[in-house]
Write a structure and sequence with these properties.
binds 1,4-dihydronicotinamide adenine dinucleotide; eleven-stranded mixed sheet; 323 residues; globular; binds ligand LD2JLWAY; Isopropylmalate Dehydrogenase; single chain; 12 helices; alpha/beta
């Protein structure tokens, strides 16, 4: 909790990385101080950055707990500076280290700007891949939760041109195994029903509109169904998210980023949560980006960050209950 709350034993300890310093992440961290949250939050950020943003948007910091990681150069709202990219990555390293050591029960990330990190000469496609590397996890899965659905992805941050070649039988099998495992173990769904999209229009139209469904997706689904997994598909992606399917699926599995996330964000932008599956640590995140246009204005909506914190609390409690 960040506003007035009675001290309580065993609240989940959650690290929050403030993200890109020129974006809305620092504003959202300040906004957390205005809410009562049943967790011990540690904001990992430059202390003076958060203080300055609080002053800018006219909100008190209260007893917000901030662990200081110094900026490389002063940050102005809305003005990206590649010099601060190493700071952004350092906040992530610190949170991961704390989660791995047991100091934190989970980490929640505010948005980073992928482009400016690359401008600094650091190859970076997203938190998901960076955290996989830091935790030595060979395969992670991105799943978003919102709008009454869960949507996981086979391919994440890659050019559309590269997608078909990146969908392989071993990769698909490994992702479905992780997804199934985490839906059971982390989300407590005993028999998850996973609806799997095809890659091509009409799921390939029997091979006339592409052969990935026949050659890659169907053989993997048949193999895993043989092990007892409840898998539907490959389904035409244009109708996969029908209202009827929303009531029946525990999770949709999309072949590429915008096939799944455009639908989810249409239904829930600003209230959705991004969760990384397959890692030894719990990580949730906002569903939006750095919104440079809103940084320092006080107009950013903290809804997604609050929902991400609540999901982290729930997943940490589920994990504790299983120990
Ligand atoms: N979790 C993360 O670190 C994510 C980072 N990004 C990064 O963010 C950067 C900017 O991405 P964009 O595509 O421009 O998306 P964006 O989400 O930053 O902005 C899209 C639109 O939504 C509005 N918006 C976003 N968050 C809002 C909030 N909390 N309250 C009110 N309005 C909000 C913005 O003002 C803008 O009009 C990119 O570098 C992208 O890679 C994008 C998504 C997730
Ligand atoms: N569209 C989701 C997104 O870009 C966030 O990715 P990540 O930084 O959480 O890997």
């Amino acid at each position: 909790m960040t506003a007035a709350r009675e001290p309580t034993m065993s609240l989940p300890r959650i690290a929050i990385t403030a993200g890109e310093p020129a974006g809305i992440g620092p504003d959202l961290c300040v906004m957390l101080a205005q809410h009562v949250i049943d967790a011990d939050l540690t904001i990992i950020a430059d202390h003076s950055l958060i203080e300055a943003r609080a002053e800018q948007i006219g909100l008190p910091l209260g007893n917000l707990n901030i662990e200081h990681v110094p900026l490389q150069t002063p940050a102005a709202p809305g003005k990206l500076d590649a010099a601060n990219s190493s700071y952004v990555l350092q906040t992530l390293r610190r949170a991961v280290e704390g989660c791995l050591s047991g100091e934190f029960d989970a980490m929640v990330t505010a948005p980073v700007h992928k482009g400016v990190i690359n401008d600094a000469g650091i190859a970076f496609t997203g938190h998901t891949e960076f955290l996989a590397e830091l935790t030595n996890t060979p395969q992670v899965v991105m799943m978003l939760v919102g709008g009454g659905m869960r949507v996981a992805l086979i391919t994440i941050h890659m050019a559309l041109r590269q997608v078909p070649d990146a969908i392989t039988r071993p990769g698909l099998e490994s992702i479905i195994r992780i997804l199934h495992h985490d839906l059971v173990e982390r989300f407590g769904i005993s028999q998850p029903r996973i609806f799997v999209a095809g890659l091509n229009p009409h799921a390939g139209e029997d091979g006339y509109l592409g052969r990935e469904e026949i050659e890659v997706i169907t053989p993997v689904l048949e193999k895993l169904r043989g092990e007892g997994m409840n898998l539907s598909g490959p389904l035409p992606a244009d109708t996969m998210f029908s209202q009827k399917n929303l009531t029946q699926a525990d999770c949709f599995l999309a072949m590429y980023h915008d096939q799944g996330l455009a639908v989810l964000k249409h239904a829930s932008f600003g209230e959705g949560v991004n969760v990384t599956l397959g890692m030894p640590i719990i990580r949730t995140s906002v569903d939006h980006g750095t919104a440079l246009d809103l940084a320092g204005t006080g107009k950013a909506d903290p809804g997604s960050l609050l929902t991400a914190i609540n999901l982290a609390i729930e997943l940490a409690a589920n994990k504790k209950a299983r120990l």
